[in-house]
């Protein structure tokens, strides 16, 4: 197997892993009664779940806040906890179920101060 064949094989494996992860995310969402992010509407109280793809400290209007990007296989949503510098368990790669009111900001959809449930590691 040549170098090009190896790269193609790794690329296909990466694609199938991503498809499998997205299927797993959708299954967990169905199991907990969550709404897919791409089906959520502005102003709606939603329950959704997914994996935190990034978590950062980002002050808003001089107030500390933890901001995380949640991905569920259908879309992304920004989660913002105002007045916090960190939240134990909220870290990139962690699966969570969240509940809160969907808002639309200029940079995308957001839920401020969502309630959350950490999912066990190794499960989505």
Architecture overview:
The structure is a single chain. The protein has 124 residues and is α+β, with helices and mostly antiparallel strands. The chain has a single domain (3-118), classed as Nucleic acid-binding proteins (OB fold (Dihydrolipoamide Acetyltransferase, E2P), Beta Barrel). 23% of the residues lie in helices and 38% in strands. The chain has 1 helix and 6 strands, in the order αββββββ. It has one helix at residues 3-31; strands at 45-57, 65-71, 76-82, 95-105, 108-112, 115-118. Strands 1-2-3-5-4 form a 5-stranded mixed barrel. Residues 6-16 have low confidence and may be disordered.
- As a percent range, the share of helical residues equals 10-25%
SS field, number of helical segments: 1
Strand order in the largest sheet: 1-2-3-5-4
Structural class: alpha+beta
How much is the average pLDDT? 80
| CATH hierarchy, class | Mainly Beta
Low-pLDDT regions: 6-16
Number of domains: 1
Strand content: 35-45%
Radius of gyration from CA coordinates:
16 Å
Task: Note the main sheet.
Answer: 5 strands, mixed, barrel
The CATH architecture comes to Beta Barrel
- By CATH, the superfamily comes out as Nucleic acid-binding proteins
* SSE run: HEEEEEE
| Total beta strand runs | 6
CATH topology: OB fold (Dihydrolipoamide Acetyltransferase, E2P)
């Amino acid at each position: 197997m040549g170098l090009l064949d190896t790269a193609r094989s790794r690329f296909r494996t990466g694609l199938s892993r991503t498809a499998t992860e997205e299927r797993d995310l959708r299954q967990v969402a169905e199991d907990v009664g969550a709404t897919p992010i791409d089906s959520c509407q502005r102003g709606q109280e939603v329950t959704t779940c997914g994996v935190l793809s990034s978590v950062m400290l980002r002050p808003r209007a001089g107030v500390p806040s933890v901001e995380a990007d949640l991905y569920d296989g259908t879309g992304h949503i920004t989660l913002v906890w105002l007045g916090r510098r960190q939240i134990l368990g909220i870290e990139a790669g962690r699966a969570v179920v969240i509940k809160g009111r969907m808002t639309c900001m200029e940079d995308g959809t957001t839920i401020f101060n969502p309630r959350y449930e950490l999912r066990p590691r190794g499960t989505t």
